[in-house]
């Protein structure tokens, strides 16, 4: 199929980048974007009221995501980053339809699946929410590009609530990780994709479990690179900006979000309540 190049010449480099997730997970992507693109103004939406997306129906996820996309477009964003795998797996098409091709949409599954398909040639495991695993999108996308890779996906639904409760370096989280990663489905993997943007918050614990046996993929870095490439290609990278603005909107204010966002973005950030 012939791909037509989209025209984004109506957009300006100093417009903000919109990023969204159900909660703190997308902050792992936002943090990488801030590191790689320090001149960009960012607007983050965390849908904490509807968390976790991973247990919701496709229809519900589509409803949340299209509303958030509309909100970010009203805030004049020049690009939308779906910093959530469950949202990507269930609502990517609808988010793109909502933007009507006016801004680039960057998701968290396609760039990671493509990189794995082209650069890594071994057995791949994916851990993710039920909503992502049920879609089979990682397996389909990886195997579309490289049909020799074996992909095993495992739903690991207890990790998001544990992370949202702030159970990092906690015996509860260690035991959940141990139970999931020792599952037979993941027995022969050589590479593991963290198919949920919350999981990089536990990357040390996950790497500890495997030692050097399994390569754990850093998805937020891959996604931030993809965003940079798309902005660059469309001359939309922001120039010198000594005081980038970081705005955070949440559909429910939670202590854990406040803690992690301040750790990543500094104490002076302001969290606004916005119920869509
Ligand atoms: N961080 C999200 C993901 O990447 C959503 C987790 C959830 O809300 O269940 O799937």
Keywords:
globular; binds D-glutamic acid; 276 residues; Rossmann fold; four-stranded parallel beta sheet; 2 domains
Description:
It is a single chain. By secondary structure, the chain is α/β, with parallel strands linked by helices. It folds into two domains: 17-107 and 221-273, Rossmann fold; 110-219, Rossmann fold. 43% of the residues lie in helices and 15% in strands. The protein has a six-stranded parallel beta sheet, with helices on both faces. The chain has a four-stranded parallel beta sheet with strand order 6-5-7-8, with helices on both faces. It is globular and about 50 Å long. The protein starts with 16 loop residues before the first strand and ends with a strand. The relative contact order is 0.19. The structure holds D-glutamic acid. Residues 21-23, 25, 51-54, 84-86, 129, 132, 160, 196-198 line the site of D-glutamic acid. D-glutamic acid binds next to helix 3.
Q: What's the overall average pLDDT, rounded?
A: 95
Strand content: 15-25%
End-to-end distance: 37 Å
Q: Any idea of the CATH topology of the largest domain?
A: Rossmann fold
List cofactors, ions and other ligands.
D-glutamic acid
Going across the biggest sheet, name each strand in turn.
4-3-1-2-9-10
> How many DSSP helices?
11
Structural class: alpha/beta
Which spans have pLDDT < 50 for at least 5 consecutive residues?
Answer: none
Strand runs, count: 10
Helix content: 40-55%
Count structural domains.
2
Overall body shape: globular
CATH architecture of the largest domain: 3-Layer(aba) Sandwich
Rounded to an integer in angstroms, the radius of gyration calculated over CA atoms is: 18 Å
Q: Secondary-structure element order, as H and E?
A: EHEHEHEHEHHEHHEHEHEHE
Biggest sheet details: 6 strands, parallel
* CATH class categorisation of the largest domain: Alpha Beta
């Amino acid at each position: 199929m012939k791909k037509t190049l989209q025209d984004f010449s109506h957009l300006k480099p100093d417009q903000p980048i919109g990023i969204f997730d159900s909660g703190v997970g997308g902050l792992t992507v936002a943090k990488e974007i801030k590191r790689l693109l320090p001149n960009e103004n960012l607007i983050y939406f965390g849908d904490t009221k509807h968390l976790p997306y991973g247990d919701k129906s496709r229809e519900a996820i589509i409803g949340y995501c299209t509303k958030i996309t509309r909100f970010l477009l009203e805030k004049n964003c020049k690009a939308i980053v779906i910093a959530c795998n469950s949202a990507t797996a269930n609502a990517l098409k609808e988010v793109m339809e909502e933007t009507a091709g006016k801004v680039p949409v960057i998701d968290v599954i396609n760039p990671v699946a493509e990189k794995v398909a082209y650069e890594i040639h071994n057995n791949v495991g994916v851990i993710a929410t039920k909503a992502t695993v049920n879609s089979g999108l990682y397996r389909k996308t990886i195997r579309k590009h490289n049909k020799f890779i074996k992909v095993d996906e495992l739903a690991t639904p207890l990790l998001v609530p544990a992370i949202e409760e702030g159970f990092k370096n906690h015996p509860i989280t260690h035991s959940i990780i141990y139970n999931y990663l020792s599952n037979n489905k993941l027995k022969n993997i050589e590479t593991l994709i963290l198919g949920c943007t919350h999981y990089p918050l536990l990357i040390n614990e996950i790497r500890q479990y495997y030692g050097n046996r399994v390569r754990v993929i850093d998805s937020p870095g891959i996604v931030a690179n993809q965003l940079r490439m798309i902005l660059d290609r469309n001359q939309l990278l922001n120039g010198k900006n000594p005081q980038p603005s970081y705005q955070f909107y949440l559909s429910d204010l939670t202590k854990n979000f406040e803690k992690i966002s301040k750790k990543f973005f500094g104490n002076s950030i302001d969290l606004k309540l916005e119920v869509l």
